[in-house]
Amino acid sequence: MREWLAELVSRHDLSGKAAMLCRFLEANPQTASYASAGEIARQTGVNVATVIRLAQHLGFQGWPAFQSELRHHFLSTLPPHESVTLSQSSVQGSPLAASLRRDAENLQLALSTVDEDAVEATAAAIERSNRTLVIASGSYAIVGHTLTHIGSVMGFPITMEQRGGPHLAAALGELGQDDCAVVISFWRLLRETVVAAQLAKSNGATVCAVTDTISSPLAEHAAHVMVVPTEGLLSFQSMTAPISVMYGLLARLHSLRPERATNAMRRVEEHWDALDVLHS
User: Fold this and answer.
1) What is the residue range of 61's domain?
2) What is the pLDDT of residues 188-233, one digit of tens each?
């Protein structure tokens, strides 16, 4: 976290109080990651407005967005067992209630921080592409499945590759300049996923990334980046906010080609009936 913050600060001209605040955040990463703006202000002897202005000066909408990025970098430096211990210590009362509260916080943060222009650009890229390849793995694949399944039901040529290795290599080999790749990964990225984004870009495809930090290596290879909060309990990332963003993306896709989407959905309904899919 210290390296990321130092690099971020180096790009801005900070006042005396702002520079002092940054030094405090660098020296106290856990406090910076979890304390409120009011608590940070109290410990550093400044007012809350100064803390909020620092976050905004560094390019964030406010303290919650800045702190989310700080916490991401702080947790990524910890071994999984330490992040689990830290997360457990912050859970008060029911773990279920704590999990639901965390997801509600993620959704509220996403509402104010997810770049709508990036969502719009991703929808446009999928709509004009001959094919779209979604790349995700592990628990992150649920985000990709949401986009792939519903998007294909609406008539868009979207497929997903989550097996990696030779299967991923073959899928990437089919991509060209008229295609799109949506690459999904969060927190501790898999090398294969990052390389897949790089290869898709080198093939001429439009790469769109769904990740949880603006400094993600995926962003280096993506034309459009959707940054979504994913912090969950223990050391597991929550996919609630990313899935919600996928539903928003799908809604935009539908609005770009409503007749095509509606006709495709009607045909799928007919196929469901023919296959007797639904329980009656």
Assistant:
1) 2-77
2) 888 999 999 999 999 999 999 999 988 889 999 999 999 999 988 8
- Sign of CA pseudo-dihedral 204, 210, 213, 214: positive
Beta bridge partners of 134: 160, 182
User: What pTM value is reported for the model?
Assistant: 0.81
CATH number at residue 50: 1.10.10.10
Burial (CB < 10 A; 0-12, 13-18, 19+), residue 116, is exposed
Residue 248 lies in a domain: yes
Check: CB of residue 202 under 8 Å from CB of residue 71: no
What separation in angstroms does the CA of 238 have from each of 30, 45, 54, 62?
20, 35, 28, 22
Whether 106 maps to a domain, the answer reads no
